[in-house]
Structures are given as structure tokens and as C-alpha cells.
User: Fold this.
Amino acid sequence: MSRKYHQEIRAYPKCAILDLCKMFWESGCLEEPFVACDWSFNLRDQFQTPDLHIFESWISNYVTNWASCDTLCNHTVGAYLEKYPGAVTSLHEWATSPNRWARRAAAVSLIIPARKGLLQQEVLTIADRLLIDDDDLVQKGYR
Assistant:
């Protein structure tokens, strides 16, 4: 369904697609954020440095389960970090956030870049920071 409707909106400006993604996040439905994750990942060639603030706001305000956290962060945020590796410093802040999903996001955002041999030192640094986290869902995110 995501692919089908993406064909209809893919010519829209990036900001319009991201606005639609935000509406999906705000819906409160379980499935709609996965469309937002797919559509935002499809914009990876258009990512610009300020876009990280959008993704961070989605994590802070809308992510409420491990599946949406991992889908957004593995793909969209991971692709963003591949394009802008210097932005990985934001993950250090996320790793100390009181928000469990931000802490998990700090780890899972690095999974796909790490599989490609990228940001390896940052992977170890974030893992060290989360090593003593007592939240099971955070620990499962970086193991």
C-alpha cells in the first residue's frame, strides 16, 4: 500500500511529503507510521542537514514502540547518517535522553551504516554509553 500511494505523491515537494509523514505519525494508528518511515526513507537522496531535527521530533513525540523506532531509525536516520556522518554527534545526546526511544534510536540508527563498515567508532561509543542502561528495550536495541 505504501508503494502504491508513494507513486501518486512522489512528485510532491519534499516538504509536502514530510508533512504527510508527520500526519501519519500523529494519527496514533499502529500501521501509519510505517508508511511515514517508508516515504521518508524514499527521500534519502534529498536529505539536507536540517532534516535530522524532523526525525528527532518524530522520535521524541510519536515513537511509542520498538517496531516504529527501529523502522524509522534503521532506514531513514541510518541513511541520513550515511549522507551526513558528522551528525552522529546528535546520537550522543539521544543516548543520554530520558526518553527510552531516543536512547534506543541512538543505537539502532547505526545498524545499517555499521553493516556497511561506516561509523564503527561511534557504534562502540554509543554501545558503551548504553551498556548500563536498565531499560530492556534499550539494551535489546544495541545488542
